[in-house]
Specification:
The protein is built from four helices and seven strands; from the N terminus they run αβββαββααββ. It is of the alpha+beta class and 183 residues long.
């Protein structure tokens, strides 16, 4: 394998391993390195764990316009084209500004939703000792039976106008069959 192929492969492996480790994404380096018939990206994201279609470039000379054109051409509909270039010893990401702003806006909205879910609901919080005790009593108080409620011999409810128990498996329920004892 040539030195340039090794450089490209190492960047692709770095990208895939970083996404796997940091995001738990099920991505991998495309062995064909973008030469596939329908998916032309260097990083395969079959399960779409990330919103990106990623093209990786590790060249001495960075031709941003050419690289970006290839990235956009290979990206699928509804996916964010992402170009990762190796500059000296640091990989840099290139994406549309609008895509970046949309991702940050989604992240901000998700964080606000999480913060809302973590806040206690104010109308359910008892303020005084008496309110706390009242709330406990309502939760743990035994259910009151209506006078018309009938129960079977095991204490299960019987539907109004019926004579059989409603509890499945009760010996007084409809269709009950006793378990056979093996000898």
């Amino acid at each position: 394998m040539s030195e340039s192929s090794e450089k490209g492969k190492s960047l692709e492996n770095y990208i895939a391993k970083t996404l796997q480790k940091k995001l738990g994404a099920r991505v991998k380096r495309d062995g064909k390195s973008g030469a596939g018939s329908h998916q032309k990206m260097d990083i395969s994201d079959y399960f779409r764990d990330t919103p990106f279609d990623i093209e990786a470039k590790n060249h001495k000379t960075i031709k941003l316009g050419e690289f970006w054109g290839q990235t956009v051409a290979g990206a699928s509909m509804g996916r964010v084209p992402l170009l990762v270039v190796q500059l000296k010893d640091e990989p840099l990401a290139v994406l549309r500004f609008d895509d970046l702003v949309n991702i940050v806006a989604e992240l901000k909205e998700a964080n606000e939703t999480i913060a809302d879910l973590r806040r206690p609901m104010s109308h359910d919080i008892p303020r005084t000792r008496e309110e706390v005790l009242e709330q406990i009593e309502t939760v743990f108080a035994p259910a009151k039976k209506d006078d018309d409620t009938k129960t079977c011999r095991n204490g299960h409810m019987i539907a109004p106008g019926q004579t059989r128990c409603l509890a499945k498996g009760c010996q007084y329920s409809f269709g009950y069959k006793a378990k056979k004892i093996k000898k």
